[in-house]
Write a structure and sequence with these properties.
alpha+beta, TBP-like, 10-stranded antiparallel sheet, YwmB-like_sf, DUF1779, TATA-box binding protein
Length: 250
């Protein structure tokens, strides 16, 4: 399973193969993974440009559109201060999206409640994402606290936390993408599981045994994904690191 550039990685199937620990331990592990990733990126002279946290829960089946509409109010009641939009596609997909921006912390929260036709009913799921710009330890601590509080309001199950950190490695002159990816793997003490090499793009999936959580791909454990993309001759190199996989476009 190689996850390619230019698409939003689909976590819908993979998410439920993720092996959980207790809720509090999972929260702690997610925080540690982000902080370790940032530390290692800085060690490689990669400037963090943004970070994100993501959780998803399958809410099961709804009888019809009316059932979906009724359930939207309960979600909005648990997410005060969000601005909401509703949409429906021609093929019957329903989506409610809410956003809340914190200018002081420079973060944006997004809640997406989606339902799509499944046989004679609707299958629904809920997404919650927090995305921050740059890196400040103080702002990160406060943002993570907000994330945990909102997550506990929105989700009833022990949902898994996915993280993604993106950075700028600067001028690509002298940077060999795959070599840089291997250097990052060494920083994480991670073992490569699979990779994808292109002229201006490299993706490496790996396993760090120090992290308890993982998914399984091709019968191998995986909990780290690193991607590097060059933007033209002499342009910058963008580095994206996700645990256990990258869940955003890059």
């Amino acid at each position: 399973m190689l996850l390619r550039i230019g698409i939003v990685f689909s976590c819908v199937l993979i998410l439920f193969g993720f092996y959980p620990s207790t809720a509090k331990m999972e929260d702690y592990n997610a925080k540690v993974r982000v902080e370790e990733t940032v530390t290692m990126m800085k060690a490689q002279k990669i400037e963090v440009t943004d970070w994100s946290l993501y959780v998803r829960e399958d809410l099961g089946l709804l009888e019809n559109k009316n059932g979906y509409i009724k359930s939207t109010q309960a979600i909005q009641d648990k997410a005060r201060g969000f601005k909401w939009d509703m949409s429906q596609t021609k093929d019957g997909h329903l989506k409610m999206k809410g956003t809340r921006e914190n200018h002081r912390l420079n973060v944006i929260e997004t809640i997406t409640y989606t339902a799509y036709p499944h046989k004679s009913k609707l299958s629904a799921y809920l997404l919650y994402q927090v995305k921050g710009a740059g890196w400040s330890k103080d702002k990160w601590e406060k943002s993570f606290s907000i994330f945990l509080k909102q997550k506990s309001r929105m989700f009833t199950k022990n949902t898994q936390i996915f993280s993604c950190i993106q950075g700028d490695a600067g001028d690509t002159m002298g940077i060999v993408l795959y070599k840089k990816a291997e250097e990052l793997l060494d920083e994480f003490s991670a073992e490569k599981v699979e990779d994808l090499k292109e002229e201006t793009f490299v993706s490496v999936s790996a396993y760090n045994e120090a992290w308890n959580d993982h998914i399984v791909t091709n019968d191998k454990k995986m909990n780290l994904q690193i991607a590097l993309r060059q933007s033209g001759m002499g342009g910058k190199t963008t580095v994206t690191i996700g645990t256990p996989i990258i869940t955003t476009e890059y």
